[in-house]
Amino acid sequence: MADFCSQNKESINDSNYKDSYDNAQHASSLPNSGTGFSQVGSNGLVDQSAVDAYVTTLLSKANAAPPGDTDPDDVNPASTFADSAAALRANIGSEYCFYYKRYMYALQKVLLLAATSGMNLAGNADYNSKKKVAQDLNSKLNQLLQIMQGLVNARTQSLNTYYGTTTGVNAVNQDLDNARKSLVEHMDKLQSNNMEMDVRSSMIDYTLEKNSSSRNLLAIYGFMNIVAVGLLFYLYKSSK
Amino acid sequence: MKEPFLDVGSLITQTQTLSDMELQSYLASLSSSQQSDFTASNVADAINSVKTVKQQRYNDMADQVTGADNNLTAAAYYVARTQDLKNMAGDIDEVAVKQLITSDVNHDLAGRQYEINEWANFNKLDTLFFMQVLFICLTFIAGLLFLMNNNLVSSSLFTLLAFLTAFLAAFTLITRARNTSVMRDSRYWHKLRFPQQQDPFPSADIDLTKACKAVNDDLSDFKGVFTGGTAKSPSGPGGPPI
Fold first, then answer.
1. In chain B, which among 160-179 make CB contacts under 8 A with chain A?
2. Structural domain span for residue B123
């Protein structure tokens, strides 16, 4: 099995196994500043509604909520979402690993103390302290798993919204179809207009040719009239 | 999602209580170092078991979260790309609409240009007609002049015919020019304009008194025939059967 915690090279000892993940370097994904849910059942489970409510807050805080249909400020909302969601997952994984290593340390100490202390366990302060810490760490690990389950549920709900009948994918598909229909309609009209324009252009060319022909005839008859006037003038002069 | 060793104290207590005698005797037979090794080995087994479970749970959940995020990212990309496509189609459609408007304008311009060219052409043909008439007249006068020079036509006849011919040419010129400038439509060559008819629908100026009297006179022959009733439903001996 792949070790999900191989990146964490931290050495755990008695001085740091009680540390909290929530500090200046990284923010905890657990509620109440990293201490976890205040209400945990005897079976170690947190009430689902509390988890769902906290997941909504966590997504908002991590800016990992799924992008809406219209977000004009964000050029590529999907990419932004992918990055923020990956960052959230990485942070949860890092925190899980943080507590996992400490839990293993505490558990090992507890078991060793239990195995070597004989029958006098209840009075062993070190054992009791480490057992309490181990229980807390285990609870945090379980809460983190529940938060991840809540995340999966939230993502599923978002996907359902994305693929709703009148929302998300179907809505933009409908818009795209409307735009396509409008485009096809206008293109058809444009093509028809272009054909009509070609006919009109040919008609104009034809009238230009007719004008040119008439102009030539006018020039010929103008010249012939000048010749006729000249002839008339010549005959008139010759008659005198 | 209950984890092993959730309540480590009770588990250890149960283990202590329920451990079998064989194990106790086995442990008693071991030396101190062997007991330590045995304990360490058992603790290591337990730790490894917990590690395996914790890792498996985390990996399963991480895979689910990653898959859900990837699905959502793919859907978001699909929506974004579809939105881009819609926007691009809208832009192209906008260009097409502008081209349609331009095409309509060009269509009107081309139509008008065609009308102008047609009008100009017919105007030229009209001028050509006058030029032909003028050419015929000039040729005719020249012929007459030639005949007069050869004493085949008298001077008075030449003057008469030349005057008539010149008059014909001038008349043609004036009538065609007036027709074009006054009566002809400025847009369509073959359409003529006429002065607007004044009062095209005269009022029905009917003297009702006279009209009624005339009707009465016409019906005088039927006096006594219709003794009662109304015009639409007369009654009397000659009236229609009721």
1. none
2. 108-183
Q: What is the mean pLDDT of chain B?
A: 81
Amino acid at B20: D
| DSSP H stretches of helix in chain B | 8-18, 21-29, 32-149, 155-178, 208-218
CA distance A128 to chain B (A): 9
B89-128 tens-digit pLDDT = 999 999 999 988 988 888 889 889 999 999 999 999 999 9
Q: What is the pLDDT of residues A110-140, one digit of tens each?
A: 988 887 776 677 778 888 899 999 999 999 9
Are the C-beta atoms of A66 and B72 separated by less than 8 Å? yes
- Whether A239 maps to a domain, the answer reads no
**Is the residue at A228 inside a domain?**
no
- Does B67 fall in a domain? no
User: Quick check: is B156 in a domain?
Assistant: yes
Cβ atoms within 10 Å, residue A145 = 20
Question: Does the residue A227 lie in any domain?
Answer: no
What ipTM was predicted for this assembly? 0.81
List the 219-238 stretch of A: residues with Cβ below 8 A of B.
Answer: 221-222, 224-225, 228-229, 231-232, 235-236, 238
- The verdict on a CB contact (< 8 Å) between A187 and B113 is no
Nearest CA in chain A to B135: A225
Above 60 in pLDDT, residue B239? Answer: no
- At B1 the pLDDT is 46
Confidence of residue B211 (pLDDT cuts 50, 70, 90): low
Question: What distance in Å separates the CA atoms of residue A95 and residue A21, rounded to the nearest whole number?
Answer: 6
Contact (Cβ atoms closer than 8 angstroms) between residue B68 and residue A157: no
Residue of A nearest to B132 (CA): A221
